[in-house]
Amino acid sequence: MKILIVDNNLYISSYPQGLMVRSYLGLQHMTTARIKKAPLLNDADLSVDRVILTGSTAYIRENKDWMNEERRYIDAWMKKGVPILGICFGAQLLARHIFGENAIVALPYPINGSIMLHRTQDSPLFKGLPTDFGVVATHYEGFEIPQEHTLARVDEWPCYAFRYEKNVYGVQFHPELSGPTGHFLVKLQRFMYDRTVYQDFSTPTSPRHGKQLFSNFITST
Question: What is the pLDDT of residues 161-189, one digit of tens each?
Fold first, then answer.
């Protein structure tokens, strides 16, 4: 199986998102997962079995050229029926591509830390996961999409995961940051580059949940 991880983090002011995602895929898939920076995509990257779009320190509404180019590949993958999982920025990019420019909105305040996720629909992506479980999130923008596509919410925002058609998924949280190591990386990033943002990691998160979600995406979509 060919798994493409599109690393949208183009700035040094963040943890290595592509590597963290690959480390959560499990040994049986880690060796077949290839990481590629978003601006370096080419037509050879269309011949893959799964695509994961990582987060980024960029903002969707900056509307950079490389974001629009990535959307061209998203369109091609979707037409080929390739399962796609977008994480945080990657989910927002999917939401904008599928539901339109107005799907992305600025949050009234940043969300940064661990929060409780509440599932609202059954989905293969959440197979074997609790109805409610802690996740890590760090973002300033969110998506507003039709309710029938919403898979999960948090108290702070009505849509935190979505499904489009059979196998296109977006999650606003970071499964690869579940657990103490992920908490530390987010805290370190904020300490080094933006100490003004309030952080709350009082909600426990588990790496097991993050790994289960990635496993579900690889094997059940």
Answer: 999 999 999 999 999 999 999 898 888 77
